[in-house]
């Protein structure tokens, strides 16, 4: 682990390569899994606030799920997550473009309808964060459906932390990211 400020970064984030290859996977991470995307308590209020501005971009079944269960839910493990449809697999906020999943929240952000890009857990994926009162721990989450992203990352020689530069800066700031890079260079 590398310690950067109050964040412990697992070495797998540095030593493994990863670049989403959406043309191959079609965004399957948004429609597979045991539950929705992990949410922070603060994100629950954001989802409630922006839902009316995002709704017009969502699928009918996504809207139905939100109207029935709410903009977020507590999953079987007791964690706060995005609402899902289709037996807890497909995120209710999924929309489709040319056979590829797209986040309706992110699309609304790109259109200027909302000022929040998407849940940080989605933006940071494949990094997962474990938060403790005094520090965070960043882990690399290996999921078989991301095989093409691992292969593409190796071809391009892009480590996980470089692929996720923007969301890491969103979460921890530019100074933190610069410190991370300096720590990695000194290894």
From TrEMBL:
Family: Belongs to the Rv0495c family.
Domain of life assignment: Bacteria
A family per Pfam: DUF3109
Protein name, entry field: DUF3109 family protein
